[in-house]
């Protein structure tokens, strides 16, 4: 029996209620086999070979970031029968919940009392925050009426550094000192921030962000190893609450190490790091090429990338704040000794970007995808000029049906 099966906790009491862990009732090896079979089916028109999957060594408490919602909602007595009409002459009873959204619902949250995804600080922290909100008589957000002061709670931890940040999203003033004391009672070393978000949209995007204790960022490290497991390079990332970073640090660093090994083998002079975020691939491979061009559309991620390059003493990465589809139009790809790395969001590539990459003439392309369905759509275009030479996957998201895929393409 593998180490991960041995450490499997009892099935979470919120299983099937909250949308977090759809596959938690399957042993981990079976989850991986199910995802692998689905991936083979989706990619069958392009690849008939094996698709090895790199697993998460310990698939519990691996996530480095979670965002939870505060919800004021009518009490919902299970089992809920849609055919039974509510007696509208009776007043509604309300409850306040803090947790992940109820599966399929935008306006209700499950009051989380256990969770196998995030760090073990999560549950004591939720208890402390609930007690603080009750003591201060603060109302949770009502998603239908847009009332209430407490909206979201975001936690982020550096798995390789131990640094942590807690951000409370509110619509109005709250007692700050007592909030800091509540967080410190369970997580004394955490940085603490307060964000104001009065917009109607249900995202954790703040209008303002202020430090209550410590700093407005944490550092996380990626440790890059050779295929034999020898440490080759370390990259430090400065992460603000909003910066994109893979949520499973330890498995992500295996993927970055694998990409680094392929770059070593390909020996490009120039890397086009398209959909580059804060430069993870460029910084992981900066010592292996003459220069890297990192193209990313979100400005704060680009600023983080520039800062991260400085932090790591890297001077051969150029950062471009642009959409890839615009970048390839304005600055045609110079194919000589170049490698293209693609890592688009779940929606995949813009068809114009896929076409430009397909016609770029570079010898090799590495495509990293968090959504095999859109990967297959983009491969329809890319394989007009390229063929797949290998496919593999990394299980970044244990207990969910998501999987990260890496395919290698070679010019026909
Ligand atoms: C899956 S993330 C990859 C980030 C980075 N490669 C990493 O490993 O951390 C995809 C990135 O693409 C960016 N993005 C989304 N659409 C884009 C577009 N049309 N052009 C450029 N970047 C885009 C997102 O902001 C996000 O940072």
Describe the structure.
There is one protein chain. By secondary structure, this protein is α/β, with parallel strands linked by helices. It has two domains: 28-60 and 220-411, 3-Layer(aba) Sandwich (Rossmann fold); 65-216, OB fold (Dihydrolipoamide Acetyltransferase, E2P) (Beta Barrel), CATH 2.40.50. The chain contains ten helices and 16 strands. The strands form three sheets. It has an eight-stranded mixed sheet with strand order 1-15-16-14-13-10-11-12, sandwiched between helices. It has a six-stranded mixed sheet with strand order 3-2-4-5-6-7. Helix 8 (324-330) packs across helix 9 and helix 9 (351-358) crosses helix 10. It starts with a helix and ends with a strand. The structure holds S-adenosylmethionine. The site of S-adenosylmethionine has 20 residues, from helix 6, strand 11 and helix 8. The site of S-adenosylmethionine (SAM) has 20 residues, from helix 6, strand 11 and helix 8.
List the helices and strands and how they pair.
Elements: H1 3-6, H2 28-42, E1 53-54, E2 65-74, E3 94-99, H3 122-135, E4 150-157, E5 164-170, H4 176-186, E6 191-196, E7 208-213, E8 218-225, E9 231-239, H5 249-266, E10 270-274, H6 280-285, E11 291-296, H7 299-311, E12 317-321, H8 324-330, E13 338-342, H9 351-358, E14 364-369, H10 372-382, E15 386-394, E16 404-411
Parallel strand pairs: 1-15, 5-6, 10-11, 10-13, 11-12, 13-14
Antiparallel strand pairs: 2-3, 2-4, 4-5, 6-7, 8-9, 14-16, 15-16
Helix pairs in contact: 3-4, 8-9, 9-10
The protein binds S-adenosylmethionine (SAM).
């Amino acid at each position: 029996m593998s180490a991960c099966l041995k450490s499997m906790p009892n099935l979470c009491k919120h299983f099937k209620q909250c949308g977090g862990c759809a596959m938690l009732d399957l042993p981990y090896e079976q989850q991986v086999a199910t995802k692998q079979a689905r991936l083979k089916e989706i990619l069958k028109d392009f690849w008939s070979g094996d698709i090895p999957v790199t697993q998460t060594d310990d698939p519990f408490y691996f996530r480095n970031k979670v965002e939870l919602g505060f919800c004021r909602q009518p009490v919902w007595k299970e089992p809920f029968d849609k055919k039974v009409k509510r007696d509208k002459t009776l007043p509604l009873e309300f409850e306040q919940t803090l947790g992940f959204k109820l599966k399929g619902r935008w306006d209700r949250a499950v009051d989380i009392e256990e969770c196998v995804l995030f760090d073990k600080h999560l549950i004591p922290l939720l208890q402390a925050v609930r007690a603080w909100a009750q003591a201060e008589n603060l109302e949770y957000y009502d998603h239908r009426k847009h009332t209430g002061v407490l909206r979201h709670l975001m936690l982020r931890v550096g798995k390789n550094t131990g640094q942590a940040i807690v951000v409370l999203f509110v619509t109005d003033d709250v007692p700050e000192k007592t909030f800091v004391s509540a967080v410190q009672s369970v997580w004394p070393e955490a940085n603490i921030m307060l964000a104001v978000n009065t917009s109607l949209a249900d995202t954790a995007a703040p209008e303002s962000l202020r430090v209550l204790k410590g700093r407005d960022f944490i550092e996380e490290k990626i440790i890059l190893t050779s295929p034999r497991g020898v440490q080759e390079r370390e990259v430090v990332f400065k992460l603000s609450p909003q910066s994109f970073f893979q949520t499973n640090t330890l498995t992500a660093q295996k993927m970055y190490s694998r990409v680094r090994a392929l770059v070593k083998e390909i020996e490009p002079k120039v890397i086009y790091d398209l959909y580059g975020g804060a430069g993870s691939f460029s910084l992981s491979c900066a010592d292996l090429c003459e220069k890297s061009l990192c193209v990313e559309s979100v400005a704060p991620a680009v600023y983080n990338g520039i800062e991260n390059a400085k932090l790591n003493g890297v001077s051969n990465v150029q950062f471009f704040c642009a959409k890839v589809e615009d970048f390839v139009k304005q600055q045609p790809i110079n194919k000589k000794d170049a490698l293209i790395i693609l890592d688009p969001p779940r929606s995949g590539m813009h068809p114009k970007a896929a076409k430009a990459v397909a016609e770029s003439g570079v010898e090799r392309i590495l495509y990293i995808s968090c959504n095999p369905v859109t990967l297959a759509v983009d491969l329809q275009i890319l394989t007009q000029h390229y063929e797949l030479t290998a496919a593999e996957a990394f299980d970044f998201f244990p207990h969910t049906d998501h999987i990260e895929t890496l395919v290698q393409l070679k010019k026909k």
